[in-house]
Amino acid sequence: MTTARDIMNSGARWVPAHETLDRAAQLMRDHNVGALPVSANGDQDRMVGIITDRDIVVECVAMGHDPSKVTAGDLAHGTPRWIDAAADVNAVLEEMQTHRIRRLPVVEDKKLVGMISEADLAQHLTEEQIAGWAEKVYSRT
User: Are residues 7 and 91 in contact, defined by beta-carbon separation less than 8 angstroms?
Assistant: First the structure.
């Protein structure tokens, strides 16, 4: 059985909710990632959301806001989604498809241990699985 741990990238990093978006962008650059889970201030065990490079551009820069004054917590909307490291790959696909998300944090014993992205799926799944996932995540309905 293929699990979330088998396909995840173990290089996931947190960004605290109080951190500014310019710093979050620097962390993304330094770690070569396009998304960061956002932790409650001072609590690396509690995820309050996830921000992406696109969020920073669309919801901050393009709106004329200063990324050195807007925080990661300001962009962390909704209920954070995650998957347990032991979850079967079908559960991973279901979670991502149901919530139409492209990146999924992986946790074990309530600790962040990795992140699953589109690239991770492409490396580990069959063409049929990837096509089904993409159809549900990217459909406009």
Answer: no
Q: Which of 22, 82, 25 is nearest to 52 (CA)?
A: 25
Domains in the chain: how many in total?
1
112 bridge partner residues:
107
Full domain range(s) for residue 60? 4-138
C-alpha 28 chain-centroid distance:
12
| CATH number, domain containing residue 89 | 3.10.580.10
pTM: 0.85
Model confidence over 5-49: pLDDT tens digits?
999 988 788 899 999 999 999 999 998 888 999 988 666 668 889
